[in-house]
Automatic annotation (TrEMBL):
PROSITE patterns: ALDOKETO_REDUCTASE_1, ALDOKETO_REDUCTASE_2, ALDOKETO_REDUCTASE_3. Substrate binds at H115. InterPro entries: AKR, AKR5G, Aldo/ket_reductase_CS, NAD(P)_OxRdtase_dom_sf, NADP_OxRdtase_dom. The record marks K82 as: Lowers pKa of active site Tyr. This is Diketogulonate reductase-like aldo/keto reductase. PANTHER family: 2,5-DIKETO-D-GLUCONIC ACID REDUCTASE, NADP-DEPENDENT OXIDOREDUCTASE DOMAIN-CONTAINING PROTEIN. Residues 33-265 form the NADP-dependent oxidoreductase domain. GO terms for molecular function: oxidoreductase activity, acting on the CH-OH group of donors, NAD or NADP as acceptor. It comes from the Bacteria. It comes from Zeaxanthinibacter enoshimensis.
Amino acid sequence: MQQHITDLQGTFKLHNGVAMPYFGLGVYLAEDGQEVVNAVKWALDAGYRHIDTAAVYNNEEGVGRGIAESGLKREEVFLVSKVWNSDQGYESTLKAFEASLQRLGTDYLDLYLVHWPVDGKYKDTWRALEKLYAEKKVRAIGVSNFLQHHLEDLMETAETVPMVNQMEFHPYLVQPELIDFCRKHKIQYEAWSPMMQGNIFKQKEFEALADKYGRSIAQVVLRWDLQKGVVTIPKSTKKERIIANSQVFDFELSQEDMDRLDAMDKGKRFGPDPDNFDF
């Protein structure tokens, strides 16, 4: 499914009509304080309009400062955070959300995600997100690291189908059946760790493709994400890298090369397994 990819501020429409920029900055492991403030400001200055953080990253305050210092209006930035596992459950999620808003210095989020499918808790967590959504404190709600069986279980009792599922996604972990399931239910797929935690830079097969297009390996892989209709949020705290990552709108991968990247799928995770995590 070829989505219309135009430029850095282009969007995919979520099933509730909210426009979500399909390219953003991830700030996992960016240190709170000046490091993350700079990364956010450089990204926004380069034209990014989507910033993805989480309570557990411990840098929401810096993200909020970066947005405030960017000179952009709050509504010009699509801001995402996530409820951490130890805060899951109904009341505790509502409290965690308010704490995130306070740290971010904002009175609403554009998207709030359940960070991991914590067994026995994520349904109550989801009810809390539905309440926040009904109260218009968040413009869209979704999940992260939910496999198909988690989604099916959640949707049995949910009033609102998740708008987004943010997953580990890269050429070694494509999970096409999960993508198809999400597409069928109009759940927008989103990639975390699109660079395989740096491992794409060590593979000859990616090098050959990058040479063919006269691009960096990162640019080729990020372009593949977008052409797959997958929202992507590469993380970096280096100005040149933040800018280079976003320069993926003036070339297109052929269908043959899209298929070639798809065919690299090994079902290999570099991050934790959603069926087997203990945090």
